[in-house]
Amino acid sequence: MHVEKGPGALIKMTNQQRRVVVTGVGLVSPVGVGTEVTWRALLQGESGIGHIALFDASGFSCRIAGEVKGFTPEDFIERKEIKKMGRFIQFALAASEFAMKQARLDMTVEDAEKVGVYVGSGIGAFEVIEREHSKLLASGPNRVSPFFITATIANLAAGQISIRYGATGPNLTCATACTTGAHAIGESFRVLQRGDADVMIAGGSEAAVTPLSVAGFAAMRALSTRNDDPATASRPWDQGRDGFVVGEGAGVLLLEEYEHAVKRGATILSELVGYAANSDAYHTNAPPEDGRGVRRVMQLALQDAGLAPSAIKYLNAHATSTPLGDRAEARAICDTFGESAKDLLVSSTKSMTGHLLGGAGSLEAGITVLALRDQIAPPMTNLQDVDDACAFCLVRDKGVPTTMEYAMTNSFGFGGTNASLIFRRPPADPTAKQ
Predict the structure, then answer these.
(1) Of 62, 174, 178, 390, which residue is the catalytic one?
(2) Domains of the chain, start order
(3) 417-433 mean pLDDT
(4) Does residue 318 have an active-site annotation?
């Protein structure tokens, strides 16, 4: 056992565990294909939400989405392989390439058995399911593609990434709705802490801008119908919010054991210091009004990191733009952070990207890492009449330079599943002991 201390930290006794750092971030989003282009767009408050172009949505109550524009699969995948992969797999491969290049990880010198992949999806290849089902009904079973199953199932994003890089370590997938990406990162954190791998390629991907997906969410009355002004439709914590906007894309982080990263001279973007997961155990698609599950998961993440709430200076919130969900999270934030809530910078970048479902948690984890790297809190947009439950400092319209040592990101999903991640600014001297 040993005692850990740090700025804003509570003294805690822990079993010695390996430290985990982030050395690569890969983002594919409605505001850009690539990490830095996505980051620059978000800091400027640019919206990636528009009218649906991937299919004819003229008869739908919701006709808007956050689509990934300008994505060319051939830039990342051999042409002959593209038909074997659903769009969510293509996004995941692109995001992993961005992360690997930023991390400068050379698999020719790595122990492949110590490099793992944990990438999930909330749904998998919805567009492939719809297309092949239509072929089955119209032309019979012999017309179904031989690639249908492997293009569709959720674990093939992780599978294709492991094949691409020859990573023979743990190969894992979760499908926990909108918490998927955060869970994949958090569980990879645990894999690295206990020594089952030295490197994990972790995140989530989703491509759910499809007729059946949009129709299904619309039938639940979960989606915004602000069709005349798509850029302002996703408005977390605004009194006029009327539902979320479906987005697509992927976020992948390259996580490494600290000593491994230092030894190979990697640039450390941040350190992952806290993670927690729990359940509301309340309702399939609504949180309890008091946000108690969300409050508890944030408290558990702080406990895992050994931090007092006042140590967190920026929070990338889950806030999707739904009336019930946003208010429950606001109450949970206020309860968790208490007096320090008034100094907490908070934003929901879903106001610009829409809600990436299974890819949301990892996209937003990547955004949080970049916020720490550049010491800038990214904004949220479309706030005109702020919900009175928000007793914290909302970052609006453009990024705000600030000084922060720790930042948190939240993710919550259908079924009451919750996760929180806490990242730390890397030390100026990466060889210094913490």
Answers:
(1) 178
(2) 22-263 (3.40.47.10), 276-418 (3.40.47.10)
(3) 81
(4) yes
